[in-house]
Amino acid sequence: MTQRATQLIDTLGLQPHPEGGWYREVFRSAVQVHPADERAARSALTSIYFLLEAGQHSRWHRVLSDEVWVHLEGVPLALWTCDAALRTAPAHVRLGPVDVHGTRPQHVVPAGQWQAARPIESHSAGDFTLVACMVGPGFDFADFSLMAPDGDEAAAVRHHWPELAALI
């Protein structure tokens, strides 16, 4: 781990996240909204810091609300997304400082899509990526599911996209 990653984890008070990496919620709106899909009331918006070190990844997961990823610091991030039924090949965006190769600082993952991420490592084993993730309606762990390693979705990823199986 780099000195800077350690400093960010300590300064921002980050804790291990179930999907991998480090996180801390920094905002939860007091305003409540009622999602149209019959879920109970949720905060209108939540926001977290999320840090991945080199060699770490955010496991395949989905959230029942829209999620905005914003690159804050470190190496670019490969953010993979796929429709909820895994009917189409996963696509990825490069999240990071704007460049001529298509890297952009922000990306929205629509509600219900599978998503996974990992830092795009450069030449240093100590690379990391720090992002902010905002969810609306606000995040609730009841709306979060990890891809089960022994489930049908994981079997489909292993079969159709074996290069992405390491993210399960």
Explain the overall architecture.
This protein has one domain: Jelly Rolls, CATH 2.60.120. It is 11% helix and 41% strand. It contains 2 helices and 13 strands. It has helices spanning 3-12, 152-160; strands at residues 15-16, 22-28, 32-33, 42-43, 46-53, 58-63, 66-74, 77-82, 91-95, 106-109, 114-119, 128-136, 144-146. A hairpin with an 8-residue loop joins β8 (77-82) and β9 (91-95). The mean pLDDT is 94.
Largest sheet: 6 strands, antiparallel
The value of Rg in angstroms is 16 Å
Number of H/I helices: 2
Question: What is the β-strand count?
Answer: 13
Sequence-ordered SSE layout with sheet pairings:
Elements: H1 3-12, E1 15-16, E2 22-28, E3 32-33, E4 42-43, E5 46-53, E6 58-63, E7 66-74, E8 77-82, E9 91-95, E10 106-109, E11 114-119, E12 128-136, E13 144-146, H2 152-160
Antiparallel strand pairs: 1-2, 2-5, 3-4, 5-12, 6-11, 6-13, 7-10, 7-12, 8-9, 8-11
Short recap of the structure:
This protein has 168 residues and is mostly beta strands. Helix content is 11%, strand content 41%. It has a single domain (3-167), classed as Sandwich (Jelly Rolls).
Features:
single chain, 168 residues, mainly beta, Jelly Rolls, six-stranded antiparallel beta sheet, five-stranded antiparallel beta sheet, 2 helices, 13 strands, 41% strand, globular
